[in-house]
UniProtKB/TrEMBL annotation:
It comes from Amorphotheca resinae ATCC 22711. Residues 1-19 form the signal peptide. This is Crh-like protein. Residues 59-273 form the GH16 domain. Its main location: membrane. It is a lipid-anchor; GPI-anchor. The keyword Methyltransferase does not apply. It holds the Pfam family Glyco_hydro_16. Residues 339-354, 369-413, 420-432 have a biased composition (Low complexity). Dual chitinase/transglycosylase that plays a role in cell wall architecture. Chitinase and transglycosylase activities are coupled. Required for the polysaccharide cross-linking at the septa and the cell wall. More specifically, transfers chitin to 1,6-beta-glucan in the cell wall. One of its GO terms (molecular function) is glycosyltransferase activity. It catalyses: Random endo-hydrolysis of N-acetyl-beta-D-glucosaminide (1->4)-beta-linkages in chitin and chitodextrins. The keyword Signal applies. Its EC number is 3.2.-.-.
Length: 461
């Protein structure tokens, strides 16, 4: 979780002209690449959609307004309403889940897959819940280092988690964070029968006053807001802002991750494991039901079109429920000008401005599918991915210091590792968020899979 400040650093873009700008609370994005992605990198287009942190972006309106909560049951019988992050522009009326990685429909379930050379798969809901109830019925993956997660994550990084380590199939780890601030004392285990063999229904009931984690209808944990007061900062350290539902499978046990993360995840992932099927690890999601909060005041309301923030404090009283549109005209637009086609890049010095600004976290420049309007060089994405192995030397040093990244990949997603070296190795960064967001296209060049081009790149091609 130490994400914003520390973890992303790495991700240097190898061998390309793109200088990927990183962002955090102290370093906001520049005007020409105003949106700070969930993984702490600046760009336009998809960088401004789900996960864009208004506090670290150029201005509060850089991020695209967040589609408001919708009560609905999602069963995973087809890919029809699951859209790749390279295609999604913010229209939640057409897309239920935004996909990063590789999900496949199997037997009326969706399998989140994790193959060698990838950092797994993430499905994020297109809509945001501002309190409410969400249930997910699924079977986890298994194996050392393999982590399955079902979380709520807001754009200012409030977070409510269920996480499952593949080496401890009798345990669901519950957790929460306020604005992404690391606190390793909030984790609590819930015991249950084998999570790989059995479907369980995991529920999060979230109100302004409490969070209740229940498994199969039985309450496993309750956290009261009143127990979270911080007298120093004078605020409740309690999740309180609209959040997306995220389902994910990711490798906590990568050699490039911090030791604390690897230990927490139960050791290194075995990429030749008999536990894999069809060449990948997988988690099996049967259904998700979102029930929006029945607000009696403006707090938690879901009657408008979208949520925005009017103050960088990012607390519940800074959330504005209104009617601002959520759909970008192109992947070169931003929340400030959702109809922009990006032609005017006053400040860009390059003669090919469209190629200098990142538009999809995890892809280098305007990759295939990234930017239908700009005509940038579409081959850049895949080629730079593979060529990034050229900087592998830099990546081989890091493992001890988590701050640097681990793999000089071009990914915007820092997946597993993130745990900063500074945090002692005893703590793992357990937020599903930092690790997960990752993106398939990531090249795990460090020790294990030098030169393997990430999956997204391939999928996109
Ligand atoms: C909101 O009200 C509806 C209708 O009474 C109910 O079915 C639903 O469970 C409620 N949602 C929450 C989150 O309490
Ligand atoms: C929860 O369970 C995991 C896996 O068994 C264990 O490593 C961890 O220490 C437990 N956490 C707590 C707070 O008991
Ligand atoms: C309370 O807030 C202060 C100031 O923001 C922070 O340094 C401290 O870590 C917080 N306490 C806890 C328990 O998180
Ligand atoms: C959210 O705001 C309301 C009033 O607008 C306040 O009473 C409540 O304590 C706040 N909740 C949190 C978690 O900050
Ligand atoms: C938004 O972008 C469009 C198309 O690029 C441009 O014509 C328009 O002037 C921009 N609006 C603002 C307010 O910048």
């Amino acid at each position: 979780m130490v994400r914003t400040s520390i973890f992303v650093t790495a991700l240097a873009i190898a061998s390309t002209a793109f200088a990927q700008q990183t962002c955090d609370l102290n370093t906001k994005c520049p005007e020409e690449a105003p949106c700070c992605s969930q993984y702490g990198q600046c760009g336009v287009g998809a960088y401004c959609l789900g996960g864009c942190d208004p506090r670290s972006s150029f201005s509060l309106d850089s991020c695209t307004p967040e589609p408001v909560c919708q009560s609905k049951t999602y069963d995973f019988t087809s890919m029809d309403r699951i859209t790749s992050k390279t295609k999604y522009l913010g229209d939640a009326s057409k897309t239920d889940w935004v996909m990063d990685g590789d999900a496949v429909i199997y037997d009326n379930n969706v399998l989140l897959t994790m193959a060698p050379g990838t950092v797994g798969t993430l499905l994020a809901s297109s809509t945001y819940m501002w309190y409410g109830n969400v249930k997910a019925t699924f079977k986890t993956s298994r194996g050392a280092g393999v982590v399955t997660a079902f979380i709520l994550l807001s754009d200012v990084k409030d977070e409510i988690d269920y996480e499952f380590v593949g080496a401890a199939l009798d345990t669901a780890q519950s957790n929460y964070y306020f604005q992404g601030i690391p606190d390793y004392n909030n984790e609590l285990n819930i015991s249950l029968s084998d999570t790989f063999e059995n479907y369980h229904t995991y529920e999060i009931d979230w109100t302004p006053d409490s969070i209740t984690w229940s498994v199969d209808g039985q309450v496993g944990r309750v956290k009261q807001r009143t127990d979270t007061w911080n007298a120093t900062s004078n605020q409740w350290m309690f999740p309180q802002t609209p959040a997306r539902v995220q389902l994910s499978l990711w490798p906590g046990g990568l050699a490039s991750n911090g030791q604390g993360t690897i230990d927490w995840a139960g050791g290194l992932v075995d990429w030749n494991s008999p536990l894999m099927t069809n060449g990948y690890y997988y988690a099996t999601f049967e259904s998700v039901t979102i029930s929006c909060y029945n607000a009696t005041s403006s707090l938690g309301t879901n009657t408008g079109v979208s949520y925005t923030y009017d103050n960088a404090a990012g607390t519940n009283n800074t959330v504005v429920a209104g009617d601002k549109p959520t759909v970008l005209k192109s992947l070169l637009a931003t929340g400030t000008n959702i109809s922009s086609k990006g032609s005017s890049s006053k400040s860009a010095s390059s003669t090919k401005p469209s190629a200098t600004v990142q538009s999809i976290p995890g892809l280098t420049g305007a990759g295939p599918g990234a930017d239908p309007h700009a005509g940038g060089d579409s081959s850049s994405s895949s080629s730079s991915s593979s060529s990034s192995s050229s900087d592998s030397s830099s990546s081989s040093t890091q493992s001890a210091s988590g701050s640097s990244s681990t793999d000089g990949s071009t990914s915007g997603f820092s997946q597993g590792g993130s745990n900063s070296g500074s945090s002692s190795s005893s703590s793992h960064s357990s937020s599903g968020a930092d690790k997960l967001g990752a993106t398939q296209e990531k090249v795990l060049q460090g020790s294990l899979f030098a030169g393997i081009v990430a999956m997204v790149a391939m999928v996109v091609l």
